[in-house]
């Protein structure tokens, strides 16, 4: 008996129960054109589930003009949210060389800002097609489970790993950039937040196209006094400001995405 398979089956059951007896569905990676807007992306949930929104709405899976969700978990940042909110508590990433914890700049909630909104679908539990206060039909767009490559649930608590095995988020970027020493004596291995980078965006029509100069700070969630790193520091949820796949804000080739911030 394949141990991995067994583990996945167990989690499917656990997630199905907590999502209101919905069957866990493994969502396959979608094919789409980067930079062409949210409607043409996997974030148009109508493209992903069998029976989409009754009016064919796109934004509605995440936003609503009225009656937005009221939840303490997103009191800090709520862009008219319409999707059931993830209210779980997560243990942040930790390591001996990660400065987010040691310089005492970790936010009390690692999912502060847009990250908690992402984790309302990428948690492996909440159904992706849930919106406007209505539960989806059984089996339709219910959560995918797993912590494997190309699976939707990157921070699946059911596996016990949560966000501890994911790139750190939820810390003050400026504090880390000025204190990071890595394992050597060369000084900070992290670029200052005002560092510019240039990306040629693939967009068409009303979406961003052409070469754009941006600063690292543009990628940060600014809560008034701090530049906080979030899921949206690497991904553009609306499929606008990304040159290629995975909704990334920079290219994978030559690991340009990583070198946006790291001096390596
Ligand atoms: C899959 C979920 C999702 C969908 C669908 C979606 N958004 Fe968003 N939206 C977000 C998240 C998450 C944020 C938080 C900021 C961020 O991560 O960029 C956001 C932020 C925003 C903001 C405020 C910040 C900004 O970028 O200006 C606006 C305005 C917005 N969305 C409009 C829209 C519109 C209009 C649509 C439909 C055409 C749409 N969104 C579809 C998830 C979504
Ligand atoms: C430091 C940059 C970075 C941050 C921060 C980040 N991601 Fe990613 N993410 C990536 C890259 C790069 C990929 C592409 C896959 C790869 O290269 O391994 C990816 C892939 C994904 C995928 C595709 C499925 C998979 O796992 O392969 C999802 C979904 C995802 N990220 C969601 C998130 C969410 C949700 C957050 C916040 C909790 C987040 N990401 C934070 C860089 C990041
Ligand atoms: C309303 C639910 C929902 C929300 C909210 C949401 N996502 Fe997604 N996301 C999805 C679905 C569904 C897919 C497609 C999964 C699949 O088919 O594999 C997806 C796919 C992705 C992918 C993979 C894209 C690719 O190239 O395959 C990334 C990266 C991602 N989301 C990041 C994010 C980030 C970052 C946020 C928050 C800023 C976010 N998502 C918010 C539902 C959501
Ligand atoms: C938006 C900026 C940004 C991007 C993009 C980014 N990182 Fe990071 N990364 C950081 C910051 C800031 C830290 C915290 C550095 C520290 O404390 O030393 C970090 C931490 C890390 C760590 C953990 C270091 C430790 O000491 O434990 C690794 C490994 C890492 N990043 C690799 C990557 C890789 C690989 C990519 C590309 C897929 C990437 N990063 C993309 C900003 C970024």
TrEMBL record:
Residues 230-264 form the Doubled CXXCH motif domain. It comes from the Bacteria. It comes from Geobacter sulfurreducens (strain ATCC 51573 / DSM 12127 / PCA). InterPro entries: Multihaem_cyt_sf, Multiheme_Cytochr_ET, Paired_CXXCH_1. Residues 1-28 form the signal peptide. This is Cytochrome c. Keywords: Signal. It holds the Pfam family Paired_CXXCH_1.
